[in-house]
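Researcher: Go.
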Amino acid sequence: MVANGMPRELRSFLHELRRRKVTHVAVVYVVVGIAVLEAADLLLEPLQLAWVYPAVVVLTILCFPLALVLAWAFDVTPSGVVRDRRPDAAEETLESTAHSEAVAATTADAQVLPLPKGPVIAVLPFANVSGNPEDEFFTDGMTEDIITALSRFTNLFVIARNSTARYKGRPVDVREIRGDLGAEYVLEGAIRRSAEHLRVNVQLLDASKGTHLWAETYDRDLTAGEVFGVLDEITNSVVATLADTSGVLARSGLAEAQRKPTDSLDAYEAVLRTYSYWDRQTPAEHAEVREALERAVRLDPDYANAWACLAITYLDEFDSSFNPRPDPLDRALEAARHAVRLDPTSSLSYDALAQAHFYRKDLDAFFPAAERAVQLNPNDCTTVAMMGLLMAYAGRWEYGIELVEKARALNPYHPGWYYLPLASYHYRARNYEKALEAAQQVNMPGFWGNHVFLAAIYGQLGRADEARVAVENLHRLFPNFRAWARRELEKWYLTTEMLDHLIDGLVKAGLDISDS
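Model: Structure:
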């Protein structure tokens, strides 16, 4: 297959070089190598070691391909140096499972994917205000990286870079861009770089009104060889803050969707309402969202994100006992598989598929689907955090919490439920004060699951009055929890040790659990 005059295999290879930062390492190596050679030339001759210089040149040249190989094979993460996995590693694992629906979807090279349903955003070329023409390389690169990362969100329609390049270097009214390109939102920014410091100013504007919706300034100190890593970190933060399900763009569109009755929402507005529901998790909102999504997939049966959201909403009938109907796990799995078939590039589709496998306790299918969801869009904080939560509850605690912490770092506006796995993690370690600190930040008063944690933590701490209040709130939201406690908790916690530990805390809180 050839697109834009370039074979698909070559484009894929070049993408991998960029993703693994091989090109970044090459540039940094050349710069540092030249500096080393110049220093050696100046220092060795006065020391009467000029004969060493040819060896330094040869060693510098020979180490260059080694540096590229290491850059290809390894990555530097907050957890240290780790082996970089191919982006399709989870896909290959999926091929070895009994659930081949993901394979059929992801290997369909000729499949024409549907156009995104969400808002249209144009990313203008970032301005270089450093006064150094050589920094155009960095500003252009960051613009391209943001466009590429935003394009991974299938709920956004991102204008291609070649359509926005014409606005480079000239002042423009964003309303003109709306007229030219049909953009609803415009992202613009400026980069100022010195030898030791980098400042990036970014702002999002409403293209119909010309008003500012969000702005941020990123100030970072630089050391030798770090500029690319810093640019990547800022890019990821900008993209996550804008495009996540709890990000600026979703919140901007949600205001209008919330004013409409459920039966008048279009498919995208139904998805936006689902994002809002996830932040609160109440039975009443669950019923409204389920109705809106079922209507959405009837009106727009090819909208993958609506099917994925519907699958997760069906799962809440099981995992949270919200408005249950018969066979929620089967309905959820069918909807999730359909979402993957419709759009195998959507992290949300694989998020739904992974959750469906988790609650069916099919871990052989859950783990590869969860990995695939994260790999498809590492800046989708909601998916990364949810996969981290489920990974932890499935027994991979350290890796799961690492994913949750990454999601929290990317999006400072993240919802409170991100703290639930942190509370679980500290509770499991019997660090009850830290568990309490996390649980108190969940801020989901209408979700019974948070009160379970508060009651168990207060029970373990011996704080009887606060434990009693938490138990009362739990009974108010879930009157029959006492009789079904173990059955409800084992839906989430797949290890007996954690389940028994939670039950112990609830008993100490004064909850008489009849099925324990």
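Model: Residues 21 and 71 are 7 Å apart (CA to CA).
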